[in-house]
Every structure is written in C-alpha cells, then in structure tokens.
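Quick one: structure for this chain?
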Amino acid sequence: MKINLIKKQGLLALFFMATVLSLTSCQPEDSVENNGLTNDNVDASFTVTPVEGKVNTYKLVAQPKGVLKSLWDIGAGTYAGKMEEEISLPDAGTYTIVHTAIGAGGGKATKSQEVVVATSDPLKGNLVQGGSFATAADQAKWTILNLSASGAAFWSFANSSATIHSPGGWAQEGIYQAIDVVKDKEYTIDMKVSSPSGSDETWFEVYAGKSVPQSGVEYKDNKVMGLSTWDGCAKAGFSGMLSKVGCVKNDKTGTVSNVVKFTETGKIYLLIRSGGNTFTKDGITVTKIEFRGK
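Got it. Here's what it folds into:
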C-alpha cells in the first residue's frame, strides 16, 4: 500500500509539471500581458519655469512619481535627460517642449507644452549665416572644401539641411564659413545631426580655427566636437543635437564640450569635415547650425 501511494504521488507530480510546461510553451517569450509589471499609467506632466537672472532660460521639472527615465525634445530631436533640465531658447519664437516619461516595464506616456519667447537674447544671437540651409541664399553662405581628389564624397542640399555623402574608402569632404569673434569671449557651437543608419571607421568633425582652409588639405585647426565610430558614436542610427549625441573631445578642454574661446579678436573658420571607410549609405545630415555667445 505504501509503495503504491508513493507511485501515485510521483505520477501526479509528473502530470502537474507537464501541464505547466504545456501552458508556458504556448505563451510568447516576449509577452508581458497581465504580468503585473508594466505601468500603463505613467504621468509625463512637467512644469516650465523661467530661470531668474538668466535671459530666455527655462527650468523643466518632470513629476517624479513612477518615472524611471525622462526623454526631452525641445525641437531638435529627442534626447535622454534628467527629470530636471535647464534649457536656453535664445531666439524669439514659439517652441513645443515634449516630455516622454518611461515607467516600470517600459510603460510610457508623453506630454507637451508650448513656450513663447517674445524677444531674442542680444548676447546669444546666432553668428552663423544660412545655418538652416532653407534657401539657395542660405546655402551660398557655405564654401565647399574639396578633399577627395575624385569627388567621390560630396555635400548635397535639400529639405532645409545639408548632407555629406561618401562611398567609403576614406573619401571625405568639408564645408565652412568665416565668422568674426571677440577675444576671450566664450562661445558655444551646436547643430542637429542625423542618420537613419550607422557607419564604421567614420568621422564627422567640427572645427573653429584661425587657419584658412585649403583645397585638398585636411583641416586640423582646433577641433571642437563631433561624431566618431572609434570613440563610440555613429555606429548606429542617430538624431539629435551634436552636443547630446556626439562623443569627440574638444582639443582645448580634453573633454566632450562645445565651448570655444579665442586669444584674439578677428576671423575664424567654422568648418565641418566628414568621411570614412565604411560610411553610412544614407549620409549624415546636418541643420540648425549655431555659433552663439555663451
């Protein structure tokens, strides 16, 4: 009798395990339905407050309850930020600020607010001409720096942007314009960059140097910022302000920084040079180029 009872208990245990395995095998591996872990009611609300003592500067504060990560977009692409962000909107206009809150299990929600800037900041005006590439006149403000003897790499202008194309094989090309600066004044450089696909052994570098660019000669005077697959960015698709998605160190500071300062008043050259060995098939697109007093 005792032996039979043990056998029956063993058979019941095997039957139970087979039933559980059968039920779980029918459930997709990535199914999270009714798992109780995903927060489908994330609160993405946030406040926008002018920062006292700073012109056209605002503090964004997201409500923190149930929020694990904050994504922000102030008009130039989404970036991962903090739940409290300080932003500068130096130009007059209407801006849509978008906050995406991510909660437990990947649940997310989005909220947006409009901010109206009545007057441009006189000290932070954009010194770049034609930085949006919106018209033929804008595009004419830029000079092409021919660096590939065969012309394999080239810049094209369309949709209020400029795109660098390269077949790879280290072909590269540049664009630049002259800008007048003041001694010892700090400036910031930025621009929106994007590409739907990544590259390998590729660079996109921004310079602000005193040397006059010369056709066929790689420009290397005062590298400020950029993208570099060797440094870990542009390997996959990207979109956002270069100050957020870039990873190239500033020659002067030795850190990833978009701040520049000059020892003399006079003319400098804002130059973008890009190319690579296995360059993205979609090219790297740039717009909203800015050079502003800090």
